[in-house]
Fold this protein.
Amino acid sequence: MRIAVDAMGGDFAPGEIIPGCVEAVRKFPSVEKVILVGIEGQIREQLKTCGAMNEERIKIFHASETIEMGEAPAMALRRKKDSSITRAIELVKKGEADAVFSAGSTGAMVAGSAIKLRTLQGVDRPTIATVLPTQKHPVVLLDAGANPECTQNMLAQFAVMGDVYAREILGSSSPRVGLLSIGGEEAKGNDLTKQTFKLLQDSHLNFVGNIESQDVFAGDVDVVVCDGFTGNVVLKTSEAVAKAMKSWLKDEFTASLPRKIGALLLKPAFKAISEKTNSEAQGGAPLLGVNGIVYIGHGSSSRVAVCNAIRVVRDSIQHDINHHIIDDLVKLKKTQEFI
């Protein structure tokens, strides 16, 4: 399998992106080739630092431009035809790569992938799927920001794609799908959630009904479905709360000598929780529903996150998730009359 990587995308690119790719190539023999897309001189310099100039499974594809985080995605894609994001996506379109990964502009990745790769048969809009930790097992939240406004048909398609991802990548045998709303009762929610409830209720999915925000991290469902505006708020709020809790605990446990002693005794427990909630374990989020494997990393991705992202991309290729998505969307259409 061949994976194109935007070497220039991310807050710490290429300094963290390339070492992460080098580690992945050395760690995962099934990755046939990693194609580093970006400014050739900078890529070569980083490969020298990593001692990987002679690594046969790493190739360089020169792209002279970089799309910055603050740029308007659509305009940047039009103006910067030779950007690393554009060229990396094009490698997938041309069949020269099986997947693409970038920790650069999320908007540019979503727009560029939708335009150049197009959507899979039966998909109205692609969706960002984020894996969140829970008390029991990881849960897939989608949409996490690609589509602020959605229709009931789009949410039903998101549910199918989340179900496939939970089965094929996270190992859930019969994923429980929940619809994020303001109450567990069928009558609760806005028009969108009420209409989506009916579609999912009659689908082939293991739909458990509406869930509230408090249920997301309980681990009682495997897939959480919502529009991109709501999902992005949930995601960023969760990240902010986790960061605040960590800061509060640090302040409290360093407030006195007895508390410092207690903190030392609890250090193994804190380490275990930190590992369980570490966002770098997944490396980023897949963009599901496009005609190719597309993975988007966090802007602050470290080499560890990049290496893990390559691993998940590899798994997505091996499990042929797009084929499963297409098949399951056919099942959905057989049970629903789309409006």
Q: What stands out?
A: The chain has a mean pLDDT of 90. The longest strand covers residues 33-38. The radius of gyration is 21 Å. The chain has twelve helices and twelve strands.
